[in-house]
Specification:
mainly alpha; 3 helices; 56% helix; 0% strand; elongated
Length: 112
């Protein structure tokens, strides 16, 4: 099997097509930290929304007791407030965390 892959050659590139230079990314210290922070906040918001949707499904099916529903609701509200506070502290809104995935559309669903 390894021999088969060695025999396969990449298709030739047309000589008349100019090669595109690689896109440059900003790598200064501040932008890297800010981009990483925004990415982490985005992942946390995505997970929060997924947990919230799962919790609503469980409430709708009646899997939770009243006490569990109250605790889950309070926990989700506290997480939402903490995330909002972190965003505000760093100059973001929750809408700023929605990444554009190009043809796939936005990462996060629109707010209800």
């Amino acid at each position: 099997m390894g021999d088969a892959f060695r025999l396969v050659q990449a298709p030739p590139t047309p000589a008349d097509t100019p090669s595109r230079p690689a896109r440059r990314i900003r790598t200064d210290h501040e932008s890297v930290e800010e981009d990483l922070l925004k990415l982490v906040l985005t992942v946390v918001e995505l997970l929060r929304q997924l947990i919230e949707r799962q919790a609503l499904r469980r409430v709708d099916t009646g899997d939770l007791s009243d006490e569990q529903e109250e605790e889950l609701g309070a926990t989700l509200m506290a997480l939402h407030e903490a995330l909002s506070d972190l965003c505000a502290e760093h100059g973001y809104t929750l809408q700023d965390l929605n990444l554009d995935l190009g043809p796939l559309g936005p990462l996060l669903p629109p707010p209800d």
